[in-house]
Amino acid sequence: MSLSARIEALTRTAAPQDEAARGELERIRSRLREPLRVAIAGRVKAGKSTLLNALVGQRLAASDAGECTRIVTWYRDGLTYDVTAMLREGGSQPVLFRRDDGRLEIELGALRPEQVRRLEVTWPSARLAGMTLIDTPGLDGMDTEAEGRTRALFGLAEGEVGEVDAVIYLMRHAHASDAAFLESFRDASVAKPSPANAVAALSRADEIGSARADALSAAATVAERYARDPRLRALCAGIVPVAGLLAEAGATLRESEVAVLRAIVALPSAQQDDLLLSADRFANRYAPVASEARAALLRRLGLFGVRWSVAQIREGHAQTAQELATSLVAVSGIRRLIEMIDENFARRSELLRARMAISSLKRLARAASTHAPGRAFHAELERLEASAPELTLLGLLDFVLSGVLDLTDSEHEEVLRVARIGDAATRLGAPAGDRSTMREIANERIEYWRQRGFDPIATGSMREAADALVRSYEGLLVEASTDQPAT
Amino acid sequence: MADVAAICRDEKRPDLERAVRIAAARLARTDTVVCLVGEYKKGKSTLVNAILGTDVCPVEDDFATSALTVISYAEAPIAKVHGMGANGRTIEEIGLERAAEFVSERSNPANEKRIDLVEIGVPNELLRDGLSIVDTPGIGGFGRAYAAAIFGFLPVVDGLVFVTDASAPLNAQELRFFIRARQACPTVLLALTKTDLHASWREILEIDRGHLSDGAVETFPLAAPLRRRALAARDQELDDESGYPTLLASIRRQIVGRTQSAVLDRTMSDAARALNQLASPIGAELRALEDPSQGEALSRQLAEAEQRARELRDAGARWAVTLSDGFSDLRTELDQRLREVTRRRLQEAEREIEKMDPVVDWDRYMEGIRTQLIEDAYACFEAAHDAAEDVAKRIGQTIGEETSPLADVRAEDVSASLAPRDPGRPEAARSAPGRLEWGLGMLRGAQGGGYTIAWATGIVGITVAAPVALGAGALFAAKFVLDERKRQTERRRQEARTALKQYIDTLQFELGRRLQQNLNVLQRTLRDHFQTRMQELSTAQTETVRALQASLGADQSARKARQASLRSRHERLVKTHAALRRPLAQG
Q1: CB of A469 within 8 Å of any CB in chain B?
Q2: In chain B, what residues touch A141 (CB-CB under 8 Å)?
Q3: A68 touches chain B (CB under 8 A)
Q4: What is the pTM for the complete model shown?
Q5: Phi-psi region of B195 (alpha: psi -120 to 50; beta: other; left: phi over 0)
Q6: Tell me, what's the ipTM?
């Protein structure tokens, strides 16, 4: 029986005291069945909406020069296209929308933004089937009310319960407020979200170092340094550079746009260089290609994107929209981000939701602890928690990522590998199918971590971590020795 | 000014001649300090390099600036590192090529080398007239204490360029920083960098202007790559497109120009004072000689002059006492105040520890304490300057009565007529020259003393290790015994308290030392200043007494000749004095 099925079965045994508790139980159950909720957060203009579009592969969220996302917006998979406003004082109301030039335009009509708790966009999309994506107003902007909505969503405000299972955090450079947000997200939410359910992206990577030709490799270097920074490492599972604009353009590029690029490549090379010197020149200078078309292209690709695309076409790497789109997506770095999301969220989806459910249930049980059934329920919960090795492993992962253990770099790597969701060989770092090597590694590591735990100067938490690792390796050893997974 | 110097020479007053020549030199090369501030990674260092057309400040994709960098003119490239050693301030000369080691986060993260500032001299024509450009560590990165450290420096700068970029509108933090910076230094220009990358910079600029609508701020869209290319290709049109010439012109007009007029003001009043000094004995003798009852008048004048000379000698004794007493009071008072605030902070911080788990919150917590302490210390330093200003004013009063023997043209009138009449200038700025004259401005004028002002950036680098030695407590909530967890947290708190105490002690010691040093520089500057003034005054008085005695002893015809020569000398003085007003009337 799967973990969430066990939790759901357990909720059926509970005898809620009142209407509110019954509602809460129902909410927890339905959330267990729902896809994982992943929010995209960051400071103002970090490129959140653009990234969301890139992930979904459609231009759903609006993005322009100012602070434009003012309402928390959920994007769910569904059978029909639909936009609903969830109102602050309860209830909901359908909202008009239309598609304009590929973009989704939402019209609130008579509704004022402050009346709306959140917008729900239902959109049939394979990309949304596995997880619900949530676009949020930026932090640290001028619109403090919009920021308040974001904080409420994450459960950062007083008395709020977080509604989010995991977060993709965007930052342009590691700003003190970025760290502060991730820290408070880790501290505040009921389920204690942790490094294991936060990933970070160094966004707008194409603009690093004045959008030079090697901007993205420069961004990769920066991201690597941040990933090693103990302060950031304690707050998220990893940091990768991503150029959201390039990824978005790659996902939605049209042949007409590539035609404009080809017309530019056809110009004398001195004129091309002159145009590509600055955004203003590209959009406004006299050239035989229509100025509006150039300005539109610049909005879609950014100066780096335009320079890069021109170079691609000029050097013959891409000619059609299809080819250019492929190379834009490749250079944008979005693949690595998707891999990281997949690894940390999608594959752990059930686990993360289960942990969220357990902590919500515990809160309920504590509230009812004056009654014997409440206490019994709490004990049941703890039993369930202790008997799920994957939960222990997730806890261990948080523990290690948050940097409180004094581990060597290779030990750190090892824990990340073992805590991965996957087959035994990958987790052991052994060639697939090579059972004897797997057993060998598992035995060797069991011995190693036993020793580490017995070390007289080891701290209590170190002993605990070593213990958890020994048990994980034991599980893997069983897996390697039989055909059936241990669990 | 050359005329005034010539008169001083003719009147055989080499001391005054020297003073006038120094004032003239100051006019020729006005020290103007322009400071770049803003959030980190907004392109401040790039902006400096683009202005100068050379790579002076290290610019990297990743690492930001971590120390104050002052760039000014020098015949040959040079770099000096100012810091605080065991025996007081240290200045180490390094090659320009090594400057990056101290300036960039790469090799000096969070300014752990604890330097106060790096001074760079380059033979750049734009800086020849005394313009200095200060690059600052940006705010907002890890290490928020920088912001507090920079504010300590702002009162001595003549103008600010607030740097933001075209990628996003000003955020709430930047706006708060902007407002505070403008309070510290009213002349602010807003530079919008990276406009070459962002087609929507005009919209961003409009949004920014909207946020700053309370005070009209001049804004400058800039594109450094265009400037760089324009300078290389000597392409004037492209240079104009980069926006840099407009910014430079505005720095010249608004900041350098304003400082120059303040310096002109001061130079004129120095010259007027020199003339007053010369006129004092001549005028007294002339008046006595022109009096019908010459003999009587002469002896009365002589008696008065002797009386004044005596008073001056007494005042001379008094001012030295006022100065040393004033400063020793100040030392005790400020030392106590510093102890008081650090003690209070320590108590607050200890209460805070009770509420937290040091493992999780340590860095943020320490950052908060550091920021607060530096702000507290800033207030102490400010108080020191205000108090020093008071002492200076008191001394000025005791000797000030003697300075205007030329009845018709007083030094104050000259300075008043020379004061800039700029209606757009806010009140705070108008009162600034007075403050500069006596307080921080004097420090800046003092040899190298100005940099004592940059006391706080070195402080930022002082750190203390997080108390994680005992290891973190359990996050495995279910299994860990509650008591054990409590016990561990308590142990970590104990460790945190020890670390905190040690940190605050170190910081208090270091701040105390810097405060004392600052006071020393202030006191020395004031002493030198008044010593010179007293010397001038007493020479003038002695001269008067001697001249009157000579006249008294001379016969009628000698007196007539003397009177004629005195009158022509006096006329020359009055004419030169009146000429001092002219540059203003023309400008």
Answers
A1: no
A2: 169, 171-172
A3: no
A4: 0.79
A5: alpha
A6: 0.81
